[in-house]
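Incident log, structure service

09:12 report received: a user says their structure output differs between two submissions of the same chain.
09:20 pulled the input from the user's history:
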Amino acid sequence: MPGRTVRKRNRSNILGVAAIAACASLALAACGSTKDTGGSASAGGGGGSGKVGVILPLLTSPFWQSYNDYVPKMAKSEGVDALKTVNSNSDPSQQITDINNQLNQGVKGLVVAPLDSAAIEAGLDQADRKGVPVVAVDVAPDKGKVAMVVRADNVAYGTKACDYLGAHVTSGKVVQIMGDLASVNGRDRSEAFRSCVRKKYPKLKVLEIPAKWESDTAASKLDTLLNANPDIKGIYMQAGGVYLAPTLQTLKSKNLLKTAGQKGHIVIVSNDGIPQEYDAIRKGQIDATVSQPADAYAKYGMYYIKAAMEGKSFKPGPTDHDSTIVKLPGGILEDQLPAPLVTKSNVDDPKLWGNTVK
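09:34 re-ran on a clean worker, output below:
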């Protein structure tokens, strides 16, 4: 899994004992069920009950469509009374309005996938003033109060893509089609990929396309780049949900879409883990992707908002669901969920969420 150093077994045991001791204390309202995170009482939004608002960043990506489908299922399984999801349509200012609207409806908790790591602070401040806890999914805020960030290690995304391309392209030009650099995800993936290539694969030359998670922007800029650089040997797409189709279409229009094993094949690595990427891997159109866990994002978004509403808190360390909670700058906690690399060798693994979606 991507992430930080896993602590030794005795550390987990200590945390487990601490959690048991905490549960035995009458001074605490409740304790978390995650065996090696410590639960403690803190101010919650609704005493463990009440409506929860769920705000999406967009619905034009198959990844977010899948997440949206998982939300009501995971809310039910975690015992959360979630309202119908709200789509902010890729507009950070609309997302702040959406947060305010949900707060005015009297929600006792919010699960938000921020569009802009800085702009989201205004919405978080609104929630904090009303005593409503917030769980951020997929993107960590630069500032503002959240009970937990549910996210995979995006630095690992960029590094895994770099290592895959570095192992399959010995020298020449590679492209990274970047996300929105106003988002910590776009920044983490971009800098990790760039830094890894510079340190480990100096014979590769990185060309960059800032595409803001926009498919049309990716297509037009890739077309222009290929006109000037027809000898590109590799592509890293930071979001298959929005970049896969335009990338394949652009390559096909220039007769550059060669399947793996064919002469002239451009090695392509993606991020998301959607079914369309898996089909493209099976066809040899792309070579790999990092599976971003849409199902686990929904599950643990609900898990942590329920915990926050019950007054529970957590601390850094390994969890009982194969992840690690880390402390970000500013003291924000992030549960870094596993995000495996998927290639032709494991693309049919039934455990991958992308293989469970119809």
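09:41 both user submissions now match this output. Likely a transient worker issue. Closing.
09:42 reviewer note: The chain has ten helices and 15 strands. The chain has a mean pLDDT of 88.
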